[in-house]
Amino acid sequence: MKIRFLGTHNAQALCFAHTCFMLDNRLLFDCGSAASCLDLNEQLALRGIFITHSHYDHIKDMPAIAMNRFLNGQHLPPMSVTALLSTLDDIKKYLFDGDIYSDFFKKNTLVTTEAQLGISFEFDGYQVTPIESIHKLPCIGYAVQKNGHSFYYTGDTATGFAQNFIKSGLFCHVLIAECTLENSLKGTTLHLTPNELKEELELIKIYQGFYPTVFAVHRSAKQEINILQEIKQVSDELNTEIFCPVEDTEIEF
Predict the structure, then answer these.
(1) What residue ranges do the domains of the chain occupy?
(2) Are 24 and 1 in contact (CB under 8 A)?
(3) pTM above 0.85?
(4) What's domain 117-245's architecture?
(5) Exposure winner among 128, 134, 149, 227, fewest CB in 10 A?
């Protein structure tokens, strides 16, 4: 598996972008900055988008991706958008309503795939399992497996995601987890701090017998210095590596 982090923050400016990443050059997980980070050919090579929830920073670039496919990819099959039913409804209502922007679902540029909690399905050779996250809006993470390799992407979440992952009965070699806030802001919103991420990792270690390789994303750029220092401290305390990728970082496992 090869993952390219297109954005790794919770906002967007010239030097950072909304959290989203591409798997093996063909699947997107969230779509906050994808059109801004991928050239046209890379966009047309996409086969599916997996959305965690309908907050703007996770869906912002969907209209641009769809328009480029409509204008330049008429020879291509419709691209699947996988999400909870409530998330799909929000996307259709607010992004593709036919007034603010064209309805690319009606134009058959995009098609929907409803994600159901805990129900695994196969997509393009990958086994995908939606797992509930804890957030203001209905939100899911995705556990993905193929050929003995696996990762789990939490999406936006507060504490409790580890227990939901454990209930799935799955294992993960790589964990892509949000870590939005510095420790001093614990409990102010439904996002994780480094110390809260530590507690979740300890639960996963007890369950599967080892720590996954961790990539902390959705970081607040304003608090970046403190977050990085606090994540380093957690990494030292657990004696396991926790990476904080920047935009356009690629990993392979």
Answers:
(1) 1-115, 117-245
(2) yes
(3) yes
(4) 4-Layer Sandwich (3.60)
(5) 149
